[in-house]
Amino acid sequence: MMLNQIDEISGIGLHLDLVLRKVQEAYLKKFEELGLDLTIEQWVILYRIYQLGNDASQSDIVKSNFRNRATTSRVIGRLENKKWITKTRFNGDMKRFKLELTKLGREIVEVIEPHANTLRKQAIKGLDILEFETFLKVLDAIGENYSN
């Protein structure tokens, strides 16, 4: 009964979208406060390259970023234009593109990372571990419902 009411009132998609927008707005506001011309997509990819280190490839970023190849390629191009990353080929593997942070790119990550950690903590403020695990389980189940 309750689930039908929720769906009739506004739909789960609306709730997810509203929360996602609030999260994105918080990040964009922080980037602006830090004086950085940076989008959410650019931050996600920049940080993923940072996490992968010397083994970061464009194909890995596409797989882990949940965006299509063309969109990811466009964002990577913008990061290159800003001189935050370099794109070369792996030695001995001319098919794969190797992505590396430049000195400037590393500095950008180091400036943002503590703020991103604070924003992540803000997201779970007031939730206990069980509530958060349940939240993730429910999100995964909803996602699986659309995977068929």
Explain how this protein is built.
By secondary structure, the protein is mainly alpha-helical. It is 69% helix and 10% strand. The protein has one domain: Winged helix-like DNA-binding domain superfamily/Winged helix DNA-binding domain (Arc Repressor Mutant, subunit A, Orthogonal Bundle). It contains seven helices and two strands. A two-stranded antiparallel ribbon has the order 1-2. Strand 1 and strand 2 (93-101) form a beta hairpin. Helix 2 crosses helix 6, helix 3 crosses helix 5 and helix 3 packs across helix 6.
List keywords for this structure.
two-stranded antiparallel sheet; globular; mainly alpha; Arc Repressor Mutant, subunit A; 148 residues; 2 strands
